[in-house]
Amino acid sequence: MDDASESASGYRTAIGRVAVIGTGVIGASWVSQFLGAGLDVTATDPGPGAEDRLRETVARHWPVLERIGLTPGASPERLTFVAEPEAAVADADFVQENGPERLEIKRETYRRLDAAAAPDVVLATSSSGLTPSAIQVACRHPGRVVLGHPFNPPHLVPLVEVLGGENTDEGAVAAAMGFYERIGKRPIRLRRELVGHVANRLQAALWREAFHLVGSGAATVADIDAAIAHGPGLRWALMGPCLLNHLSGGPGGLAHTLDHLGPLMEAMWADLGDPRLTPELKATLVRGLDEALAGRDRDAMVAERDRLLVDLVRQKRDAPELP
Known about the structure:
This protein is an alpha/beta fold. 50% of the residues lie in helices and 12% in strands.
């Protein structure tokens, strides 16, 4: 490794090979993303038949990645599968871990990764529930452990949430942010550790009220989904809630919106529900969705979702005025 491959703080920034630990739904999607970005990938997963499933998934994802746009040199042939995590990280420049969401397993995995990977290699976890602080205690080099939480599916959705733990080096966070950005992701830097991070908490706020409205009889499952998919969801796909309110305020911008609609916002906040996922509510939600989807083909829905996501991501990439 030459000097140009290290950042000023000592972590690698010239990434040629990524190790992917765990190749379930998220891990396999990450593998596809990295291969599409023209990188070499070494993957590992202890599950029986994991290599065959991974290669089949990459082949299934590849036509979509071609539509998004491949980096020159990108190829599924640049994937190597090995049996042990130590072998996977031995020559890696960056590590993306996607193991089970169980702290004891995660810590043992990071103990092994930390012992085998070069000390200037960032170890990133895709965990949606565990924090870097809880994981990095197992490492001799805790400063290189970061959160690199994607939004599913990673090979289609650009967002990655990046966060350091109590003992993470700022240079490791910067190196991770830079790497994700260079491969076409849209990383955001989180400022403190939270249950569920940021994007999932925003989703949870919407789910909470959606499930309350169904449970209270105010709307059906189909009505709720239509209200979002054919209403605010269309705008949210283009911009976040703060910018949306700014543009809604006309020349006065966000300040006018907050002054004009502030009392209504507060009245709605005070009236929001506090549901519990009781057996009855779960049954109501499942039954309502089954009724809404009667006669529809799930695989066809997934294919249409992915096709539209690809088109949307490509068009957003060509809209430089939208942040």
